[in-house]
Write a structure and sequence with these properties.
FAD/NAD(P)-binding domain, globular, 22 strands, alpha/beta, five-stranded parallel β-sheet
């Protein structure tokens, strides 16, 4: 039995702790915040009409089998803890210039039929060809990458790739290039581009292999948890406690002790004595780990990819909008948005809030999250990360957040959804707020190492492991849960 300390109580940390405790290890989770869940955040706004409940992080659960596997591995059933509801449409896509919206769904034939009805038979045939390629990429990724440790690019190169898999993955190609090659309708290209943002990346630079992301969402469905996605954190915490895991909130780890090339424990702010450990699992951003907790200049130098952040409005809206659970309102010039969000530091072009951004709106038809006669809106806009460098924006600059909130509401009104005179309240969350709340550097949603290949799960010291969105296999609820499985399997059972 090993003494294991998990630094951070996000989904990856809690999932790892539960798996390790179920196999006989002594596990302690240390979380700097007062609540668990990490980026799977929640917020309650009380009003005379009643409370509004918001998920301030993920709003969609995909790959449900990953979570069924997690709970079964810890001796429980997912359905005993969570109430999963399938969503159709998964996303309603509203394109510029008017015309029909496109509702995605988990039935490939039905989705192709919807594309054909909205955009014509050629567009539907294009999508079906792309879908066959996406399926091949997904199968290769799921078989060879997502459930095993990848310690370096050499590990990827050493895999026994089938020639057909390599052709589908398209090494060196971008997601944007893939869309231009396969999709003749610009609206479908725009839809495909959006999935690069699921990894925090720019589709013009993101690898074509990310075509597996829409496949995972549209093949296995999108799901909502009644009561909000935050109930997943509650369920994982309950599993941990039932399995004997010690969970301490308000405990800030300041350093990992790793003298002699192996971990010995961690140091806590305000506590003189170290917390001993045979194994440390870091559920923090890799940038935070290698910059602050275990300084490693060589590994830190590799974390150079830029990952987008998010600007959020939490709105209490009176009446019924008629919106789908998820709606995406695209801009006329998608490239202008990415130019603004990422900037061009090499050319001296600073990042800035996009003037005409894509707007994501989540409205859950769930009486558990809003008073009768009202809706709780979560509005998300892609945004530059917080900071003072050319590729970032100082979101604490006086007046900026409120002015941009006004702009986002104006954009929604321009796109046919005007709620400015139906607001019971609004609250703003900037990338700086996410940085403060979760320790995500600059407020990066999917970790600072956005893109395909993330830092390895195995750390540079013996007994150190990484889980979470900034490590392999990447960001998003199912990926961080798979990272927990990889790490728990590598550590192995206590017996």
């Amino acid at each position: 039995m090993a003494r294991i300390v998990v630094v951070g109580a996000g989904v990856g940390g809690l999932a790892t702790a539960a798996r390790l405790a179920a196999t006989g290890h002594q596990v302690t989770v240390l979380e700097r915040a007062d609540t668990v869940g990490g980026k799977l955040g929640r917020y309650v706004h009380d009003t005379p009409a009643g409370p509004f409940h918001f998920d301030t992080g993920p709003s969609l659960l995909t790959l449900p089998d990953v979570f069924h596997d997690l709970f079964e591995a810890t001796g429980a059933k997912l359905d005993e803890y969570l109430d999963l509801a399938p969503i159709d449409p998964i996303v309603r896509h509203v394109f510029p210039g008017g015309g029909p919206a496109l509702d995605s769904c988990a039935d490939p034939a039905e989705f192709a039929a919807r594309i054909g009805a909205a955009f014509g038979d050629r567009a539907a045939a294009d999508w079906q060809r792309l879908w066959r390629r996406a399926e091949r990429v997904w199968q290769a990724s799921h078989r060879d990458i997502l459930r095993r440790p990848i310690d370096s690019p050499l590990d990827l190169a050493a895999l026994a790739w089938r020639l057909g898999d390599l052709a589908a993955i398209g090494p060196g190609r971008t997601l944007r290039g893939l869309g231009r090659r396969h999709l003749s309708d610009p609206r479908l290209r725009m839809l495909l581009d959006r999935y690069a943002t699921y990894t925090g990346a720019d589709p013009r630079r993101a690898p074509a292999a990310l075509v597996a992301v829409p496949y995972a969402e549209l093949a296995f469905g999108g799901w909502y948890l009644r009561g909000g996605l935050g109930t997943l954190a509650d369920a994982l915490l309950t599993r941990c406690l039932d399995l004997g895991v010690v969970v301490q909130t308000g405990a800030t780890v300041t350093r990992i002790d790793a003298a002699g090339g192996r971990v010995h424990g961690v140091r806590l702010r305000g506590v003189a004595a170290p917390v001993p450990a045979d194994v440390v699992v870091a559920n923090v951003d890799a940038l935070t780990l290698y910059r602050d907790l275990l300084p490693s200049p060589r590994r830190l130098a590799g974390l150079t990819d830029r990952s987008l952040a998010g600007f959020v409005l939490l709105l209490g809206v009176t009446g019924d909008s008629g919106l789908a659970h998820h709606s995406v309102f695209f801009p006329r010039d998608y490239d202008a948005e990415f130019d603004a969000v990422f900037g061009h530091p090499g050319r001296g072009v600073r990042a800035r809030p996009a003037a005409d951004p894509t707007v994501f709106v989540t409205v859950a038809d769930d009486p558990m999250v809003r008073p009768a006669g009202h809706e709780a809106w979560f509005v998300l806009v892609n945004a530059p990360r917080h900071g003072t460098a050319a590729g970032a924006v100082d979101w604490r600059r006086p007046g900026l957040a409120e002015a941009y909130a006004d702009r986002v509401l104006d954009v929604l009104a321009e796109r046919g959804v005007d709620v400015r005179d139906r607001l019971a309240f609004r609250e703003v969350r900037t990338p700086a707020d996410l940085d403060d709340a979760t320790g995500a550097p600059g407020g990066s949603i999917y970790g600072t190492a956005g893109g395909l290949l993330r830092p390895a799960n195995r750390g540079p010291a013996h007994g150190l492991w990484l889980v979470g969105g900034s490590s392999h296999p990447g960001g998003g609820l199912p990926m961080v849960t798979l990272s927990a499985q990889i790490v728990a399997d590598e550590i192995g059972p206590a017996w």
